[in-house]
Write the structure tokens for this entry.
Amino acid sequence: MSPPAPALEIVGATMFGLDGLFEQRTLVVDEAGRFAAGGDGRLVLDAAGLWAIPGVYDCHSHITWNDFHHDQRERKSQAQRDRETADALAATLRGGVLNLRDAGGAPKSLQDAVASGALAGPRLQISVEMIGATHAGTADTMRGHVEAAIGLGAQWIKLVATAGSSTPGDAVLASNFSEAEIKAAAETAAEGGARVMIHTWGGDSADWAIEHGATSIEHGIYLTPTQVRAAAAAGMTFVPTITIYRHVRDMVLAGQLDGVAFGRIVAVIAAHEDVVQLADREGLPLAIGSDFTTPQQHGTNLIEIAALIRAGIAPVTALLAATAHGAALFGDADGGRIEPGARADLVLLSADPTEPATFEDPAHVVGVLKDGRLAYLDPALPRPTPQERSHS
């Protein structure tokens, strides 16, 4: 008995490979939802003139927040927040993100709902809660906070070790935690099967995170060359979040955000681009993070690829940051690449992915394949058609 025929054949698209090269080739997806080496699909999707990249990993977002300010979220009913979260998940998937690491807010019940198919969205890895300044104390209290997060299902321990844009000058580098607390967080996370992602703009907390085994640095705006080299040597991943600070700048200009000086946020944006270039030169792997929170932002996540390119990162490197490097950070051996045996996650684009403008317009995402099934296809594109077979 012959094996079942592959489920889908994608023809005519120009594919992005791990070698950084693009080539036009036919792509086959089997019934298990994986890319296959060959065969004829029962259905054929004509992707002539389109580009294909692996499913994108957003490694820092807040899918349940749906408001920029905490007090605005708290004024909404739980039912309204649940509806907005469902919409945000669907928009993010439709926008080309197949895997998302939530940096605080998403509960395990939401992760389970996506995994079961009850909600459409990207696969989630979660931190559940953010451990910040109000949790500071001793190494023992830190262990308790980490154990509590793991008990709630956290795969990542999110430490908020420094402040943000509203903190002036070098004061933003002051650590919310002692070295002993950061060490205790990393050790307790490892014991519980979780990993540490640390919000730090630099300073002592970055040194301690590198030394004691954190997995990823978030933001990292004022990391020094010594810290970047040490993070690379420690096998860490750097997750810059360039676009969100541009949004903050725009809110300041529009008078929508108090407490952040315009000159301050402009300097932050410039420093962020500088440290991204530094990380690239020093071999510290980049992954993308949107840090998005609002309905207007969810679904536009791929703009962070454009932000990396405009910050001086080679397009191929930016694409690898969004795909293969994200898969490595997730510990996802099945994703991040288009090759036989890999999970069939795919984003179809209507414009050249080496051009940043492609990712600055969400309309250029015209197709999304998750586990080998079409999660989204632009209505203007032809539907997959049955493959004609010879019966001779």
About this structure: The mean pLDDT is 94. DSSP finds 13 helices and 19 strands in the chain.
